[in-house]
Amino acid sequence: MSKTDDDLYPARGSRRRLLGAMMGAVGATPFALGLVSEATASNGTRGRLALRPAAFDGANGSALIGLWGHEAIDVSVGWSVASDALDQKSAALRLAEQNDFVGAIALSGLPSGATIRYAAFAGGQRISEIGEFRAPFKADIATPNFSLVFSGDTEERHRPFRIFDVMSAQNPDVFVHLGDTVYADIPKREFEPSLRHYRRKHFAIRSDDALQRFAGRTLTYATWDDHEIENDANGAHPAIGVAGQAFREYWPSRSVSDRGMYRRAALGKDVDLFMLDTRAFRSVQSAENDERKTMLGDAQLAWFIDAYERSTARFRIIASSVPMHGASQDAWGNYSIERDRLFAMFRRAFRERSAHTIVLSADYHFAREWPRNEKSGVYEFMAGPLATFLTFSRDNGARARNSRGEHFVYGDTENFGSLRYTASSKTMDVAYFDRTGRQLHSRTIG
Q1: What is the pLDDT of residues 198-237, one digit of tens each?
Q2: Domains of the chain, CATH where assigned
Q3: Which of 88, 94, 302, 403 has a CA between 20 and 30 Å from the CA of residue 116?
């Protein structure tokens, strides 16, 4: 981002400067300093948790419940199926200062596809609102009807994030956040690649009321992109470790690797979701584009190829923070040898097993589709942003460059995409919506 763009970012006011100083000096949290909204309070329980609990990374009858406090406390999660009884209780978890009073509790034994209601408890008292989510579908049963929404890019200065209320109105079962969950490196004058800084920036994003309401009723899967670390970060960035720690604290996941964010979730027998990490292992962008250059790294690439080829799902959804068809230095086009190897695998899966590969991506700050063709063998649907600047308002030529050919392109407002699976026809309907909920485009696959 240019110096001019950085100068447009408002400086932190005195209250924020005080917050930064106090957090660094005495470990105070945003809640203790009065920066948490009234939306987090319920039934006289204000003060026990800093943010509303939220559900993440469902798989095989289990899910993670993220918890964010502001003081040392022993917390458990009570839950039940489609009622407010909440008589099933998890083991307790200590939210401790050394972990910034955050943690996640795994719920298990969730009936496939059931509506789960849940809340946080301390000492037998409920200390949060009652949230809900649809339990993940078990991998060995036919996928029922379900819906998924996807997009990326949420920047603090664009709060409130009203688009989350618009997405919530569609009652999706799943949300896939495709990265740039936070712009930790904006404004540049305030950026420092430290755990304290990353935590502060993530808290500012997650404390948005609309995001909290949405996350309190939707199962979320999130991956990261560069701005959770620093613009155009690659695997050699020295802050990968602390940036990753902060990301996991605010977007819990069950990744295969402690360093990366990649994992797989079966959404029933007919749909697989692969969450890729295009940051933690990638080669530097300026490296020669040869056999050694990698976007995923050796371990993740081997895992993905194995998991994809073992899949028997009719629909294989791949979450990639950067577009596979993108030609920019930071996108897959600059790692084309590795990408083309994957494209060949996708083409084989379609020819031999009638498997549809659908890539979901973000990063470019406008929406666009790439219909499947013989070269790639994959559908790609890029969405966003959720809440940051619009590329078409800054680059006069971007719209024309991306509008060549017969495909959908949109970049006039914030936007998101959706996938709706219909079990009876075994088809996937893809649609795009703007920030008001107006449908912009649709396509049926299968």
Answers
A1: 999 999 999 999 999 999 999 999 999 999 999 999 999 9
A2: 38-134 (2.60.40.10), 146-445 (3.60.21.70)
A3: 94
